[in-house]
């Protein structure tokens, strides 16, 4: 009788564990599903006509555009070209980042400026940011 109760308890715990983990997996998207949702979100933005487009070039330790001004809610497009050296364009607060580019190559990104404030954009390659490869994205009400 003692072994029967232990066996019954193990079966009940197993069934509960299976049921709970199955529900958790249904609620949480897998990494692949999350990546697909993010790609779809980015694709949706790329299909929308931007409110503002900036053509930005990068050379060693500087951008040609030091300040960008937009309105809150604007769809912003950055057309970035690396003219000299390996560079990218990043603004953390909007999770916006171009690819790291070789000289003479380009990349474009689109994001929604949904926060008001002044945000630093920068090159994340090596110490480029510390050496002055930065600018300001100003989002006004």
Salient structural properties:
141 residues, alpha/beta, Immunoglobulin-like, 2 domains, 4-stranded mixed sheet, 3-stranded mixed sheet, 2 helices, 34% strand
Report on this model:
- A hairpin with a 2-residue loop joins strand 1 and strand 2.
- With 141 residues, this protein is α/β, with parallel strands linked by helices.
- It folds into two domains: 43 residues; 91 residues, Immunoglobulin-like.
- 30% of the residues lie in helices and 34% in strands.
- A four-stranded mixed β-sheet has the order 2-1-4-7. Strands 3-9-8 form a three-stranded mixed β-sheet, with no helix packed on it. A two-stranded antiparallel ribbon has the order 5-6.
- The protein starts with a helix and ends with a strand.
């Amino acid at each position: 009788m003692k072994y029967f109760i232990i066996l019954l308890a193990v079966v009940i715990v197993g069934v509960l564990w299976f049921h709970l983990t199955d529900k958790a997996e249904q609620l949480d998207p897998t990494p692949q599903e999350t990546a697909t949702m993010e790609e779809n979100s980015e694709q949706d933005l790329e299909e929308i006509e931007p409110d503002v487009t900036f053509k930005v070039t990068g050379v060693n330790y500087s951008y040609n555009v030091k300040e960008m001004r937009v309105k809150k809610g604007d769809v912003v497009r950055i057309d970035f070209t690396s003219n000299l050296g390996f560079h990218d364009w990043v603004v953390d607060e909007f999770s916006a980042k171009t690819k790291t580019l070789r000289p003479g190559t380009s990349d474009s990104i689109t994001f929604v400026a949904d926060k008001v404030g002044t945000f630093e954009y920068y090159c994340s390659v090596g110490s480029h940011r510390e050496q002055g490869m930065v600018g300001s994205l100003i989002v006004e009400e």
